[in-house]
Amino acid sequence: MDGTVIGIVAFACVIGLLAVRVPIAFALAGVATVGTFVIFAFRTGTFAPERALKPTTSLVFSNSFDLIHSYDLSMIPLFIALGHIAYRAEITTKIYQAARVWLASVPGGVAMASVVGCGGFSAITGSSIACASTMGRICSPEMLRMGYDKRLATASVAAGGTLGSLIPPSVLFIIYGIFTETSISALFLAGILPGLISLLGFVLVIFVWVRRTPEAAPRFEGQITMRDRGRAALDSWPAIGLFVIIVGGIYGGIFTATEAAAVCVSAAVAIGFAQGKLDLRGVIESLRETCIQTASIFLIAAAAKIFVAFIALTGVAPSIVSAVTDAQLSPVMLLAAIAVIYLVLGMFLDPIGIMVLTLPLMIPLVENYGFDLIWFGVVIIKLLEIGLITPPVGLNVFVIANVVGKDVAIDRIFSGILRFLTVDVIVLILIMAFPVISLLIPNSM
Questions:
Q1: What is the pLDDT of residues 380-392, one digit of tens each?
Q2: What is the pLDDT of residues 188-202, one digit of tens each?
Q3: Whole-number Cα distances in Å, 378 to 184, 383, 429
Q4: Concatenated DSSP letters for 408-443?
Q5: Ramachandran region of residue 300, left (φ > 0), alpha (ψ -120 to 50) or beta?
Q6: CB-neighbour burial class of residue 274 (10 A; exposed 0-12, middle 13-18, buried 19+)
Q7: Residue 87 falls within a domain, yes or no?
Q8: Residue 418: how many CB atoms within 10 A of its CB?
Q9: Which domain holds residue 285?
Q10: I need a labelling partner for 19 at 20 to 30 A (CA). Which of 5, 219, 252, 353 fits?
Q11: pTM
Q12: Tally of domains within the chain
């Protein structure tokens, strides 16, 4: 039986299983295992299942074992733990509070502070959904109480939460780096400028929104002194310090990304205890939540590794590369096609699922075109960011909807999201058109 046909059928089966809500890990591992068994069983031309059992089990267990024992994968639980500990120690919220004080007199200042707070949270933890959930509980209810437009109060936080995928550290960058065998440290650095441009773009959306519709954001009536601003800025030093350790340590060659994560976790625990914001119970609870999230990600990653090995066995990737080459698509047309695929998948699937499902086919394709894999990683992560707020299944939007409950209908949140999506698309085009935006910092190392 032709391996390419088996590979195409396997992809169709995975998509079908995901459509009926089978967990991505079980869908990938199950289809890959059955597909591998079929390939080995028909290797001699006739169906011989007794010859397929041993090579199938060997491929499944060896690939999953090798991935779970990967040194790079150890930074995922470290960065997840850092996010939980920093939140319980009130380190992440200090960035929002400082921005809240500094931007209080600016029209729409609380919404802008929410976006900046999301950026600060993203600079410590690596999950967009965690960022949206955490900052949503803090920011959206406050804006609603102040009389902000419901669309602005929710959409700004949902969009700001996507920054967790691009601003380092990022769990998606880690998974991309492991599966493409590219430098995770370089990927982290490549995400800085695109992440900051996205953040500034969101702030600009809020500024224009409030400028055109002043009633969307009531003006602040209180008095903020320079002493208040100075105190707020000083209180945010732990978050800034942790970000400097991560980015400065990696850029300066002092730490690897894994070492930076370990140092930051230790520093966050020490700061939390020293400031009296963290206790042993908080640490234990943070570690418990870390274990739950890490187990879920590792299970998906292990299943994806099995699926990647299966796809390599089918030879479907070289067939697609050959077909695209014969079609003589220009690099621009290829990137446009990839963008459409990811944007469509982003409407229905979670970012990790999209990545592990598509990378086995996309990477050989872009390598054949000579694209830089670090730059392409930033493009992919940006596309996945957009998927987090794209209807009908924008995960960040549903997270915010759960936070605000019945106060804001989900269609109202999506209507507000459209303005932020416009900026996201513009930033995506800039990243595609000017790779230097992503490569400037890593190439200067």
A1: 999 998 988 888 7
A2: 999 999 999 999 999
A3: 12, 9, 12
A4: S-HHHHHHHHHHHHHHHHHHHHHHHH-THHHHHHHH
A5: alpha
A6: exposed
A7: yes
A8: 12
A9: 72-298+435-443
A10: 5
A11: 0.87
A12: 1
